[in-house]
Amino acid sequence: MRKYHDEITRVAGAVVEVTARGVAYEDLAVLDTRLGTSLAQVIRVEGDHVTLQVFAGTQGVSTIDRIRFLGRPMQVPFTKNLLGRIFDGSGKPRDGRCELHDDVIDVGGPSVNPVIRRMPDKMVRTGIPMIDVFNTLVESQKLPIFAPAGEPYNRLLSRIGLQADADVIVLGGIGLRHDDYLMFRKAFEEHGVLHRTIMFVHTASEPTVEALLVPDLALAVGEAFALQKNRVLVLLSDMTAFSDALKEVAITMEQIPSNRGYPGDLYSQLAKRYEKAVDFEHSGSLTVLSVTTMPGDDVTHPVPDNTGYITEGQLYLRGGRIEPFGSLSRLKQRVNGKTRDDHRAIMDACIQLYAACLEAREKRSMGFEMSPWDSKLLSYGERFEKQIMDLSVDISLESALDTCWGILSACFEPAETGILRRIAERHWPAEKPAEAV
Amino acid sequence: MSETGRIAAVFGNMVTAHVDTFAVLNSVAYCRRRDGTRLLAEIIRISGDAVDLQVFEETRGLRVGDPVELTGNLVEAQLGPGLLGRIYDGLQNPLPELAAKHGTHLLPGRYLPPLDPQTTWRFTPSASVGQKLRAGGALGHVTEHVFEHPICVPFGWRGSWTVEAITSPGDYGCDARVAVLRGEEDIRREATLCQRWPVKVPLCVCDERLLPTEPLVTKIRIVDTLFPVVKGGTYCIPGPFGAGKTVLQHITSRHAEIDVVVIAACGERAGEVVELLREFPELTDPRDGQSLMKRTIIICNTSSMPVAAREASVYTAVTLAEYYRQMGLNVLLLADSTSRWAQALRELSGRLEEIPGEEAFPAYLESRIANFYERAGAIRLHDGRVGSLTIGGTVSPAGGNFEEPVTQGTLKVVGAFHGLSRARSDARRYPAIDPIESWSTYEGIISQEARVRAVRLLKDGNEIKQMMAVVGEEGTGIDDFATMLAAELFDAVFLQQNAFDDVDAASDASRQRLVFDKVFELIDAQLVLDNKEHARAVFVQATEMFKHWNYEAPQTPGFDQALAEIDDFIGRGGRTL
Question: Do the Cβ atoms of B270 and A112 come within 8 Å?
Answer without folding.
Answer: yes
